[in-house]
């Protein structure tokens, strides 16, 4: 029996500014592609999820971020947000548990509100400097998108949701993810917000020039660069 073909997909982190940039461009400029993709969250797991991953012999590409890289990302995201006309804030993360928001996303997606949740959560983090690792923030976002506040606030307490989270992270491991945003189409993989156009071209079966003709380039952005993605630290920086 032939192996089932995996759908095109992208891995995003609610923690990552580069994932935020990719999300904005993907949904605003290429909604046909956004609608056809499988959306899979990626984050730095807490101790409970890490134990489950260890049992499954899944090793995520998580290393500590250097001070120099952290300062570089602050400069880089300031440039990129300005070029995109976005007013960006940097929240302060104190002992964050990224399980809180990413497992809440899985619950929201189950309830048919995944995309709305992502929009509100990115706005909370990158435009309003709110702490998305707090259960209270998840409850507030739940109200905004018409869901039971306790449903999202307590997502980390649900063993079934935990298992689904492990499946997401395991999928990233098998797909060879090393940073976000990360796009997969068949055997082809694309890392970084600045690789969105080549991904769209591969997805649509178009030449990159055809995709770029429909792209309103940002004056301050290079067509391709070594930046535009988070690596080393799960979800990047913050």
General description of the model:
- With 238 residues, this protein is of the alpha+beta class.
- It has a single domain, classed as Glutaredoxin, CATH 3.40.30.10.
- 49% of the residues lie in helices and 8% in strands.
- The protein has eleven helices and six strands.
- The chain has helices spanning 17-29, 31-36, 47-55, 67-83, 99-110, 114-126, 135-144, 149-153, 159-174, 196-204, 208-213; strands spanning 9-12, 38-41, 179-180, 182-185, 188-191, 230-231.
- The strands form two sheets. A four-stranded mixed sheet has the order 2-1-4-5, with helices on both faces.
- Helix 5 packs antiparallel against helix 6 and helix 5 packs across helix 9.
- The termini are far apart.
- Mean pLDDT is 90; it is low at 218-227 and 232-238.
- Keywords: Isomerase.
- Its EC number is 5.99.1.4.
- It catalyses: 2-hydroxychromene-2-carboxylate = (3E)-4-(2-hydroxyphenyl)-2-oxobut-3-enoate.
- Residues 11-197 form the DSBA-like thioredoxin domain.
- It comes from Streptantibioticus silvisoli.
What topology emerges from the helices and strands here?
Blueprint: E1 9-12, H1 17-29, H2 31-36, E2 38-41, H3 47-55, H4 67-83, H5 99-110, H6 114-126, H7 135-144, H8 149-153, H9 159-174, E3 179-180, E4 182-185, E5 188-191, H10 196-204, H11 208-213, E6 230-231
Parallel strand pairs: 1-2
Antiparallel strand pairs: 1-4, 3-6, 4-5
Outline:
It contains eleven helices and six strands. By secondary structure, the chain is α+β, with helices and mostly antiparallel strands.
Any idea of the CATH topology? Answer: Glutaredoxin
The CATH superfamily turns out to be: Glutaredoxin
The tally of beta strands, per DSSP, is 6
* CATH class value: Alpha Beta
Architecture in CATH? 3-Layer(aba) Sandwich
Q: Give the topology string: H per helix, E per strand.
A: EHHEHHHHHHHEEEHHE
Total domains: 1
**Structural class of the helices, strands and pairings?**
alpha+beta
Mean pLDDT: 90
Bulk shape: globular
Main sheet characteristics: 4 strands, mixed
Distance between the termini: 45 Å
Main sheet strand line-up: 2-1-4-5
């Amino acid at each position: 029996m032939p192996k089932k073909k995996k759908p095109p997909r992208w891995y995003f982190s609610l923690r990552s500014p580069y994932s935020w940039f990719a999300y904005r461009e993907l949904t605003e400029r290429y909604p046909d592609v956004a609608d056809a993709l499988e959306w899979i969250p990626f984050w730095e797991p807490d101790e409970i999820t890490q134990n489950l991953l260890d049992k499954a012999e899944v090793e995520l590409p998580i290393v500590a971020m250097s001070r120099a890289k952290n300062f570089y990302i602050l400069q880089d995201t300031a440039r990129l947000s300005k070029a995109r006309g976005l007013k960006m804030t940097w929240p302060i993360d104190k002992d964050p548990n990224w399980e809180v928001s990413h497992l809440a996303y899985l619950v929201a997606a189950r309830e048919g509100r995944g995309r709305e949740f992502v929009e509100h959560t990115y706005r909370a983090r990158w435009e309003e400097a709110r702490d998305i690792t707090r259960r209270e923030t998840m409850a507030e976002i739940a109200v905004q998108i018409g869901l039971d506040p306790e449903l999202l606030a307590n997502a980390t307490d649900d063993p079934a949701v935990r298992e689904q989270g492990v499946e997401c992270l395991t999928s990233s491991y098998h797909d060879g993810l090393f940073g976000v945003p990360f796009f997969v189409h068949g055997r082809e993989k694309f890392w970084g917000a600045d690789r969105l156009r080549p991904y769209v071209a591969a997805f649509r079966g178009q030449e990159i020039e055809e995709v770029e003709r429909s792209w309103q380039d940002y004056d301050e952005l290079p067509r391709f660069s070594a930046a535009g993605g988070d690596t080393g630290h799960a979800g990047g920086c913050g």
